[in-house]
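Single Protein Entry

Contents — chain, fold
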Amino acid sequence: MSALTPPMLPRVTNHLTGRKVLTILVAFFGTVATADAVLVVSATRTWSGLEVASPYKAGQLYNAELRRAREQDALGWHLAASAARLPITGAAVTATLADDAGTPLRGRTLHARFERPTDKRKDVAVDLVEVAAGTYAAGAEAITPGQWDLVVEVIGQDGVAFRRKHRIVLK
């Protein structure tokens, strides 16, 4: 009788060894750590931090802000502001100021700020000058395209007497 011999199986050389497991783990966690590092660096470079220096104190001053808003409404003033891109890298801001009867308010001191909603480091302030009765204008340099908050303030004897904030998009 002939003895049956089992067929020869091909030899498997692709064993999962400790070295391969270590390489897989190091590659996986290295990829995750690299992605995290890129995201953290990107976040810290593009976000300036807090909206206000002390949110706690800003909360305490909320009633004073409400009082100022009521005082501003009692003045009955109307302020309309607009901004337009200049040909190169700037913007022109124009504001008209009138009283409750529609009479232009002359001789006031107006300040404007272009505030970037996402990055306060890019804010630009300008002083407006009166160019016609109740119409004030100024130009600002280095205003990039995008969304901005245009804040126009009328300065009074005790500080800011009137403030308007407009969300604008400069193309």
